[in-house]
Each structure stands twice: as structure tokens, then as C-alpha cells.
């Protein structure tokens, strides 16, 4: 006969095990990108081959990109910015100063699909700090060597700059 503590333990352990188990039925569950990756470096490559800071933002950069087995992803990148004094409340800063801080931060999330044959990952943006990106699909060429992945943006057909970004990430 089951004791009350056994029933309680099963009630706690089984839901946690279900959450921890990878989504085996999902097509992304065996993708080599699954996991968390810390930003190593980022740069923008101009049409003529010149390289410069990523999106003209100052180094150093920090960031994290996460690919979940269930096909969801998120990315966050911050560029250098001065620390906010302890006695200053961000919400009370003038709008232009708030905007300057926010301009140094980039993030979006959504679904992703990995095309192993083409070594391309597509991010389907559900929401972003930049509202013009909502609903956009971003394609990235993938180069995975050991615990480092390099994602190279593939310019959209509507892009007029001819530039692309190269971001390198290390598995954490």
C-alpha cells in the first residue's frame, strides 16, 4: 500500500521530471545548436569587405543566445555603456538619457528552425525590443567548430546596405 509521503513525493518529482525531459517529439531536439551560448565577439562586414564594430556600437559586447529543444530561441546583446550611478533611478532619467542606455541593448525571441543540409538557422521573431522586427524571419549561416558557433547574417532581399554581421558564440 502506498503511504501518503510516497504519493506526495511522486506528485512533486513527476512534474519536475516532465519539465526537465527534452521534447523528443520535436524536430529541433537533435539540433547541435540546442543550449546556451555566450557572445565572444561581433562585427559588421561592409559591402566592400571592411569590418567594423557590430551595428556601429562600441565594444566590449556581452550577450547570450539560447536555443531550446522545443524550437524556441532568444538572444540578448549589450554593448559598452557607462554604469548608472547607484543613487539614480533609471525611470527618472530624462527620455534622451534612457534612450541612450536602451540603444546599447538588443533582444528578441521567437521560434527557430535549423536546416542541417544548408547549415542555416532561421529565427522567426515573435517579439523584439525593435518593434519593426516583429514577424520578421532572420536567416543565419551556421559554422560550428567545437564549442564555438559563428552565425553570419544573410541579408534580407529588402536590405540596401549590403553589409552583414558575424557573431561568434561559445557554449556555456
Describe the structure using short key phrases.
single chain, 2 helices, signal, Lipocalin-like, Lipocalin-like domain-containing protein
Tally the beta strands.
9
Which topology does CATH recognise? Answer: Lipocalin
Number of helices: 2
Question: Could you list the spans in which at least 5 consecutive residues all have pLDDT below 50?
Answer: 1-26
Work out the count of structural domains. 1
Radius of gyration: 20 Å
Main sheet, how many strands, which sense, barrel?
8 strands, antiparallel, barrel
Q: Give the averaged pLDDT, no decimals.
A: 85
- Shape descriptor reads globular
| Beta-strand share of residues | 35-45%
The secondary-structure class comes to alpha+beta
Helicity level:
10-25%
CATH architectural name: Beta Barrel
Q: Ends: how far apart?
A: 45 Å
Strand order of the largest sheet: 1-3-4-5-6-7-8-9
CATH class: Mainly Beta
The topology string of helices and strands comes to HEEEEHEEEEE
Amino acid at each position: 500500500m502506498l503511504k501518503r509521503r510516497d504519493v506526495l513525493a511522486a506528485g512533486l518529482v513527476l512534474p519536475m521530471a516532465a519539465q526537465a525531459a527534452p521534447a523528443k517529439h520535436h524536430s529541433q531536439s537533435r539540433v547541435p545548436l540546442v543550449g546556451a551560448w555566450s557572445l565572444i565577439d561581433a562585427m559588421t562586414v561592409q559591402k566592400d569587405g571592411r569590418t567594423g564594430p557590430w551595428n556601429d556600437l562600441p565594444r566590449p559586447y556581452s550577450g547570450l543566445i539560447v536555443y531550446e529543444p522545443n524550437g524556441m530561441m532568444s538572444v540578448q546583446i549589450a554593448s559598452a555603456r557607462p554604469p548608472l550611478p547607484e543613487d539614480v533611478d533609471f525611470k527618472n532619467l530624462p527620455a534622451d538619457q534612457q534612450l541612450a542606455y536602451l540603444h546599447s541593448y538588443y533582444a528578441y525571441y521567437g521560434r527557430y528552425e535549423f536546416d542541417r543540409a544548408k547549415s542555416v538557422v532561421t529565427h522567426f521573431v515573435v517579439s523584439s525590443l525593435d518593434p519593426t522586427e516583429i514577424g520578421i524571419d532572420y536567416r543565419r549561416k551556421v559554422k560550428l567548430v567545437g564549442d564555438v558557433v559563428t552565425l553570419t547574417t544573410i541579408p534580407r532581399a529588402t536590405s540596401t546596405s549590403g553589409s552583414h554581421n558575424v557573431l561568434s558564440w561559445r557554449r556555456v
